[in-house]
Inverse folding.
């Protein structure tokens, strides 16, 4: 659907169009479905405003496509309440991330929870990803490859 109310240059994104973002991948060089081979279950509860992702046990040797040099990984989930009315000017974004897990041993299942402030009409976007790190002298350094 397109905005048929506003003039060209001032058209707005319609809430009905957010479905096109389902399964959107923001990293074309390393898509999530080519990196993490588990079925994470995401849910959004508009009664409690809880947005959660349940991750099952991960066996990194077979369920994780790790870049060279990576020693650890983290799983991140985020949620955003998207209010497209610029007059309101509210933007709510929350994130949670796992601990840094070593990529040479099994990781038990866990849940990432995010709670949003109530807003019955606005769309909620849920994002999910994996980041890789190299541990050097007890410090974790993000890998960008």
């Amino acid at each position: 659907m397109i905005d048929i109310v506003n003039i060209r240059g001032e058209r707005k994104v319609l809430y009905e169009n957010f479905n096109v973002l389902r399964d959107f991948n923001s990293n074309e060089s390393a898509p999530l479905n080519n990196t993490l081979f588990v079925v994470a279950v995401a849910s959004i509860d508009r009664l409690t405003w809880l947005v959660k992702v349940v991750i099952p046990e991960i066996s990194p040797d077979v369920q994780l496509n790790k870049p060279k040099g990576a020693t650890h990984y983290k799983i991140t989930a985020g949620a955003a309440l998207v209010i497209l009315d610029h007059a309101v000017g509210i933007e709510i974004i929350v994130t949670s991330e796992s601990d840094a897990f070593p990529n040479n041993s099994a990781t038990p299942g866990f849940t990432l929870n995010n709670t949003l402030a109530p807003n019955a009409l606005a769309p909620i976007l849920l994002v999910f990803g994996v980041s890789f790190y190299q541990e050097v002298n007890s410090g974790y350094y993000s890998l960008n490859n």
About this structure: Residues 29-142 form a domain with the Immunoglobulin-like fold (CATH 2.60.40). The mean pLDDT is 87. The chain has one domain: 29-142. DSSP finds one helix and eight strands in the chain.
